[in-house]
Amino acid sequence: MEKQQNVIDKIPQDILFQVLDNPYESMIIVDQDGRILFISKSYEDFIPIPHEEAVGKHLTDVIPNGQLHTVIETGRAKIGATFTVSGQPRVIARIPLKKDGKTIGAYGKLMFWHADKVGELYQRINALRGKIQLFKDTLNAIYKSNYGFDNIIGNSPLIKHAKELALQSALADSPVLITGESGTGKEMYAHSIHRASKRRDKPFVSVNCSSIPKDLVESELFGYEPGTFTGALRKGKIGKFELAETGTIFLDEIGDMPLNMQVKLMRVLQEKEIEKLGGKPRKVDFRLIAATNRDLEQMMEDNTFRHDLYYRLNVVNIRLPPLRVMKDDLPMLVNHFIKEIRQVMPKDVSSISDEAMEIITKHSWPGNIRELRNMLEGAMIRCKGAQINVEHLPPGLGKPACVKLSDTTSGYTLREQMENAEKAIIREALEKAGQNRTKAAKMLGIHRTGLYQKMKKYNLAG
């Protein structure tokens, strides 16, 4: 208080008087008994006596319908109220003056000389609201779901089970973990869950954890305040979680997230609270969907993925099957992709020959649905007619992974063929076991750790 008084003492009296008596804000100050201590000269247009004579009189003797003394009784401010002066409505503010918790007076001022000025202010506010809504609509157009469950093609039991589980998870707001090999459509499932959820009209923000440099993960996810570090944007940065406010954030390749960020992500999931670099914690409303093609259970054993985060994410686990176990769905998928690609490609391709379809069926599709679509796109580019034939397919498509030594064009050694056979056997065991590693290890007659090692060797984790 003493420091503030010293500051006020340094302000010239004529400047302080001009602040009180400026012509733009007609001001009146009363003491705790409602007696006028000061009144602006501009008030003379609305009171019956000169403003100097009004000082010392009670407010109601000068302005009969004045209400400034009422804020002394209540101790509460009234801002934006309409007050009639000389038959004209004015917009005013009434503020109590307090010291040591006790009201010692009050002051009032005209915020707008004419009530229609308030209308102008509302018009400006509405215009700003319109611009904000436009920005929100634009943001939602950028961060929106692009797929629904209708875009997921397939009638095999495994696909039907995955779609059913995904649809059930859309009705809740719990975290979802989608696992499966690369190219099996994990992002499409995430989009579909969001579109079927109560957050469908809110942002869908997708983040590929593997594509962000480790030293930038925190700033990308949570953002930063202006001037937090050298090279920071002047206005700071909004993080992905903040962009996903009231919507869904999809963390793809969650298995590639650094351990130190796993700790922070766990806290965000528990507290629903983010903290920008250089900022303060704030609550944020979001729904999390995560996906990975890695074996998180093995990563936990290797201490590269946190147990607590895994159990927090794994509320609903949707395992997507590889394409090689959905051979019956191949004709449907092929026809779907031909129609889809034809919409963006000036081609009249509308079908595929039986011979070409047979080769496609024999292929193991290690790249899954993504590989199938890309292959068909290339075949349609090479095709000059209305039908995709064998000659339009990539060379070697459909050949078995294990070839005979007598096939001199293969170049496979005995060791390579044995490894290919072992890989195929392990893959088949995992498929029969429904990707249950313990069950698959028992089927193969090996220890679970040994199975993990071979899966890692042959890149079968997922």
Which properties best describe this structure?
462 residues, alpha/beta, Beta-Lactamase, 4 domains, five-stranded parallel sheet, 19 helices, 16 strands
Describe the structure.
The chain folds into 4 domains: 14-115, Beta-Lactamase, CATH 3.30.450; 149-319, 3-Layer(aba) Sandwich (Rossmann fold); 325-392, Helicase, Ruva Protein, domain 3, CATH 1.10.8.60; 414-457, Arc Repressor Mutant, subunit A, CATH 1.10.10. Helix content is 42%, strand content 17%. The chain has 19 helices and 16 strands. The protein is α/β, with parallel strands linked by helices and 462 residues long. It is elongated. Helix 17 (414-432) packs across helix 18 (437-444). The longest helix is centred in the N-terminal third of the chain and has 27 residues, at 116-142. The two termini are 66 Å apart. It has a 5-stranded antiparallel beta sheet with strand order 2-1-5-4-3. A 5-stranded parallel beta sheet has the order 7-10-13-6-14.
Strand order of the largest sheet: 2-1-5-4-3
Helix segment tally: 19
Write down the oligomeric state. single chain
Number of DSSP strands?
Answer: 16
Q: Estimate the helix proportion, in percent.
A: 40-55%
Poorly predicted runs? 401-411
Strand content range? 15-25%
Output the CATH class name of the largest domain.
Answer: Alpha Beta
Through-space gap between termini: 66 Å
- Tell the overall outline: elongated
Radius of gyration from the alpha-carbon trace, in angstroms:
36 Å
Largest sheet: 5 strands, antiparallel
